[in-house]
What we know:
Chain A is of the alpha+beta class. Chain A has 19 helices and 32 strands.
Amino acid sequence: MDTSLEPAYPEVAPGARPDAAPLANPGIGASVRRIEDEALLTGTARFLDDLQVDPLLHACFVRSPHAHARIRAIDATAARAMPGVVAVYAAQDLYGEITEWRMPLGFPLANLPADTTPFVLATHEVAFVGEAIAIVVASTRHAAEDAAAAVAVDYEVLPAVADCRAALEPAAPPVRLGLASNALQEYTLSYGDCDAVFADAHTVLQEDFHVHRGCGHPMEGRGVLARPDPASGELTVWSSTQLAHELHYTIAMMLGHPEDLLRVVTPDVGGGFGVKFMIYPEEIAVPAAARKLGRPVKWVEDRREHFVSAIQERDQYWSMAVAVDERGCVLGLRGRMVHDHGAYTPQGANVPYNSASSMTGPYVVPAYRLDVAVAYTNKVPVATVRGAGYPQAAFVMERLLDRISATLGIDRAECRRRNMIPAAKIPYTKPLKSRAGVPLTIDSGDFPALQARALQAIDYDGFDARRQASRARGLYRGIAVANSVKPTGRGPFESARVRVQPSGQISVYTGALAMGQGIKTTLAQICAGHFGVAAEAVQVIAGDTAFIGYGMGGFASRQAIMAGSAVDQASARLRRRILDAAAVLLDTLPDELTLAHGEVVSRSGTGPSVALARLAMLLKGVPGYALPVPGDPGLDETVHFHCDAQAYAGASHACEVEVDALTGAVSIVRYVAVHDSGRIINPVLAAGQVHGGVVHGIGNALFEWMGYDDAGQPLSTTFAEYLLPTAPEVPDVEVIFQPSMTPLNPLGVKGVGECATIPVAAAVIGAVEHALAGQGVRLSEFPLTPMRLLECLDAADGPDDIAPAGGRA
Amino acid sequence: MDTSLEPAYPEVAPGARPDAAPLANPGIGASVRRIEDEALLTGTARFLDDLQVDPLLHACFVRSPHAHARIRAIDATAARAMPGVVAVYAAQDLYGEITEWRMPLGFPLANLPADTTPFVLATHEVAFVGEAIAIVVASTRHAAEDAAAAVAVDYEVLPAVADCRAALEPAAPPVRLGLASNALQEYTLSYGDCDAVFADAHTVLQEDFHVHRGCGHPMEGRGVLARPDPASGELTVWSSTQLAHELHYTIAMMLGHPEDLLRVVTPDVGGGFGVKFMIYPEEIAVPAAARKLGRPVKWVEDRREHFVSAIQERDQYWSMAVAVDERGCVLGLRGRMVHDHGAYTPQGANVPYNSASSMTGPYVVPAYRLDVAVAYTNKVPVATVRGAGYPQAAFVMERLLDRISATLGIDRAECRRRNMIPAAKIPYTKPLKSRAGVPLTIDSGDFPALQARALQAIDYDGFDARRQASRARGLYRGIAVANSVKPTGRGPFESARVRVQPSGQISVYTGALAMGQGIKTTLAQICAGHFGVAAEAVQVIAGDTAFIGYGMGGFASRQAIMAGSAVDQASARLRRRILDAAAVLLDTLPDELTLAHGEVVSRSGTGPSVALARLAMLLKGVPGYALPVPGDPGLDETVHFHCDAQAYAGASHACEVEVDALTGAVSIVRYVAVHDSGRIINPVLAAGQVHGGVVHGIGNALFEWMGYDDAGQPLSTTFAEYLLPTAPEVPDVEVIFQPSMTPLNPLGVKGVGECATIPVAAAVIGAVEHALAGQGVRLSEFPLTPMRLLECLDAADGPDDIAPAGGRA
């Protein structure tokens, strides 16, 4: 990455659909600086642990050390007597506070039994190491931790099962008492006549793949601060979450707390990555304890807790066959995928469905059949992490395309091009439906063009010279390209309220949620363009239920689309109202007026003007006097932008690596990410998300390994064991936007957040395999740690039949 | 008043316009019990002084002991050193906190210079006894008071002027340094050819009248609690005010505080009566001190402070002549009125204008000319108290009608009837405009019918027998009737937001303000009728800026009209949305459905149903899933009801008194109040307001005397000196509603709050004069305390020419 002080301006190629109507909003398209950064850079940002409420109590949780056990008894007598301890609450101590004891299913519309979610605190059974059993509240965190260790839980240890394939064996012990089967779901996604195409195919290839478990690991873990006001009954809950309004709903429902007396606020959030797209038991237990005590209580997750209680992802075993014709065109895919869901289904079972339904990516696959088995295991529950099942599927698909290329002797890029959905066929509806039952329609894009741009940018054709230079230095060099597409901008809606205050301040309130990606800047920019002010003149309040009545939050690469469109429409409405009102006051026509620098001025530059502040003061109304212009008072417009269709964002990543066969070290020497993200609101911010997504994908591909032993004991609970990529492991990433405008929203924007993560493992591991092509190494899994790569090299059965010569080979 | 536990149900006569369309809302018209009362009766209501914020500091103010003085120096050294004292801030100590130092003019559209309002804290001059100079903050109120006494202020005492007539003399000292004249305003209201009608009149009568100064005296005085959150910058201000949103605006503006970081909340408010229809210096100084200290600070006005710093009213001197024809019909009125405005104009100069423009009341006056002089004096500033200038004018007009009756030998009621605007001439536009420049149009009503009903109810014709019975007991008995009309429902708008929560709770948020009159019950009742629930199932949050973005508040008998209509319309819209959404879910037509007991049910009683709670849960949206019905999410509707025309509410009060000529005691033995308040939403609540208004008027008429000596020193600063009516002084009040529906709002309602106060002094003093008619007593002023009545009797010049025989005499 460019480390100079000036941001590296990414390339924004002309849109693939240059006929798209230009936007009137001059705020869109400029790389304005982030309005978030001054606070972040000067240390005045307020993450959850920075919040000070006086006097404050601190909480920690008693968590299960066993992967599966019956709780016979909990004795907190000693803990309660320890210095500084205010309370120790096990489940039975909070029965009066919590009216709904079982966590709700995050997606209540999913076809799952409701009783597969955990309780707020475990009552009679724990099903994974880390499950919360009791909350300890003390005057300091240290006192709380010491007391938590002194809570005596009498466990009857039960058999556990850690591997999802083993969990599905008939003799496997139940992951939870009373489960008739550890199979949460078994279903088949299919279309076309798979058996027929396999029977008639020119070539059939078969391979097994495994994607290992990993975590989200935002820089800031989870955290909750609850402040009750015993006199008024008001309860304010701050949480480092991606879902402020859903948390408001859930706390009100589970604590039986009046909605009017509850406010949920998200402070600065240090990353989410899907981990915080969940309502967690701790977010219920902390407010319950605080309300019961009548005092503010704060809990901040430590890193070890994140490893054992924040949701995880990725565990999947695929056994796939592909049928192709003589040109390498895929005729059909079939196989089985086993997905590890951990001990509970707090959010439903959307991840395996996403993997299963997205496997074909940007490619044409005439026939498809995937048997899906979703298994409970005695591990941390699984829900969405950035990409939400797509990276696994892309990895499997792209590996299969490499197998086809190798078998039929077709260049890997050419093989992909032959299989791609051509631009002329878009919009393209896949013969599958989303888990919500909606057809999967790729609304816009040009996948072959994205790949061509990536190959050009990485100089695919000039690879051989670089390979030879590396070999001269004793290193193996490889190159690969991988493609993906993801629907972005999940609905059903997002809210935006734009208000001009009597001070002249322009405020934007939204149900969207800022978690580090710069969404406040993006929204301020969209709003500012309508009012003729700089983005930093707009105040954005996101994820605070006091300011807007409904909202969704941040997930599924949706915010620029959904919140951006809502802000755009609310701003446009408010601008129109301002011009209309000013025209009455100034005795002119609205069309003669425009907005500049916080004033309504005449377009001609010669007429009278009125400051926004004065207009807002007049329109708020003076008690007893008529408003100076007809219509509703105030300058305040709310829009709920709704759209259930999703904008498909394509990506083509090209990657070049050097591999040291002696150490197993993989060095990514070149990385090009070409993205169709629709219209780009702020190129630097969008590129920042691509950078982050690529780094996330590199971690997934090469380092991040959340291990469990057979008894369900976690093997990696520190960053010494679970390796995240750091600066030396991260290459410069060349980001190129080659947009096609989606017709699904007024801005023509698509999501970015997850899209850059999806093809990374496929590209990186493809390049490693290409580098080692002469070594007979076949790579069918990730992460590919140095140790694992050395194992693969050791196990390789001799020179491979793929000649490692040139990019095109 | 009826003191039984069951409320006395007032009579509601059929409307004078029975053709008015009936309302579909079954909640309207029933005397449901007040939803406010459980908390009030069980001691769990929270008035300002009940609010507990921990740890809390207490404030009191250093106030001027001089009516006029220059401040040479303020030395707080000793005070700051006293135990428990946290801070003493004079003006210069808060310059950094307060960006606008002068209080804004409450009615900025009034044609007044802006520099006639006080500063937050006096800087170099004080202009009335009680003006705040410094704020003292300490750990207890006692410590703060002790320290306030220790603040050494070096005053140069300046000449003061306490009488408004004296203040207008050329040689009068200026009320404030630099004032070129103590005349704040001098203007003439006039129409018709007054000089001509007086020249040609059958009879011309002339008299001087005086209405003395009084206060508002709500049971709860003023009070402010400000809680800053130094970390977030949020500032929450609780105030016992009638103007939450205007206070929000003013604090933000004067403290330069970001609007988004400010919340104004009104707790339970123990009465307002116009005294709290003001933004006071203390409401700025307390938040400023709290923010500077970073700690919560509370100030609660004590009763003595209320006497010397809460606004006052009523001081007026009228010198009037009336020209009549031989039938006693008024041909013209002319004269001069001098109004005492106190030392500043915090709210503009609306009271004298109200008096001047309302003098003709419900009567036809063909020609009118009133010279108005508004004078500054070194007394507490004047603004609106219940009735806002109308009681003074009604007193003068009704006294003049009595003089006409006496002079021409016409029965007093008949004389009034002859002069009344006949029902057939309504709507009737007076040849005057409001202070906002709007024509004064009486929209509806039948004044002769109201008086006829009052005379019938009090048995005017049977008075003579009662008079003789009283005389047999040594008491003089008199009877009188007085009429008034007041425009009610001042605009420009009021806001209402109605929301159904996922718990099923129906919440109403409004900019209206509850200050004891039962407006929460009224609004709940209006809302409940649309949803098929009881009023107590509706939660009303009034006067909290966190819940609704714009609002006006409680003043000018407006809330049932403005907020009631807003709630009615918002509820109707939400009901329509609910039925439409439920029809989609239940696969039926909206017209097949209705709402009952928190559920949408089929009108036939046989179809499927859906609970409001479930509907609200579904419509809040589930992240990632389409809303189950088309359209915006949520169940939340906001309406700003706006209306600049006012609904005219008429009243006719008949009163009978017994007077003890030895002691000067006046006993009100019968009291009938007939009111046209439009459609009655809750008869018991409306009657309660009439009761309160009559009691307020009785206090004004007979007891309340806010005295000042010539040097501007207040003479009545306790309830031992300033007498309020108590239970023994208050008669049973028979309340009769004889409504005419106003076309100005969808409910047909009119205001009640002030209307019952306006004619009381005229009726009571008219009855006293009637009782003493044989004694040669002419009563031209109020209050008429026993002592003052004895003085009048002593000064009487012998038997009057009015025979005290019978009601009709």
